[in-house]
Amino acid sequence: MSGTAGGAPGAGNNNEACRDRASRPFDPGLQPERTALAWRRTALALVIVAVVGLRVLPALLGPLALVGAGAGIAIASAVFVASHRRYRSQHRLLTTAGTPRTVLLDGRLPGLMALTATLAGLAAAAVIASVNML
Prior knowledge:
Elements: H1 14-23, H2 31-56, H3 58-61, H4 64-95, H5 108-133
């Protein structure tokens, strides 16, 4: 009978119904899940860029390439953790009864990515300029 008392629909244990609701995706379009997966792909791309940079840049930068690769992996880890927390928070807001569903999440994660992209672009421009000067 799974969650219904005496077979009557809707008369089940409220805690069990809440757990069931919280464990499944909120909407049929799975928008929060798609967003979380996009952030995870972004973190994976950052790790790949860091590893490729570690393979290519030591000839140009020496030990400084290790610093760049370490920073890239640290930022990728931060993005992965922040995206997981962001998804959990959003999922909790959407599935908990009585919570306002118009609460906006902060912009720290997109801001971190914008800063990372800007710094990576400046670093790439500096490496290209130094190679062209040789």
